[in-house]
Amino acid sequence: MKELNPLLHSQLRLAIMSILMNVEEADFVYLKEKTESTAGNLSVQLDKLLSAGYISVEKGMAGKRPRTICSVTPAGRNAFEEYVDALKSYLNL
Length: 93
Known about the structure:
By secondary structure, the protein is an alpha+beta fold. It has helices at residues 11-21, 28-35, 39-51, 74-91; strands spanning 26-27, 55-62, 65-72. The protein has a 3-stranded antiparallel β-sheet.
């Protein structure tokens, strides 16, 4: 059996990647609402995905408010697809 990617096996990181796989980009507030996570925990998990090269993060301003936009990278898309394939091998699908 294939080994499950430990970086993606975390519940919150898997949720973040699942969301980003289905949209072109998502802002921090959207991800926070969808994952029902705290801002601090979401920020830490985004940093881990960014460090791995799985997502890109663009910081800017929307009026006077900071805005963080996240999107999945080709490497992240590949890692997620490999994770899903590995998971399927455990489920015999």
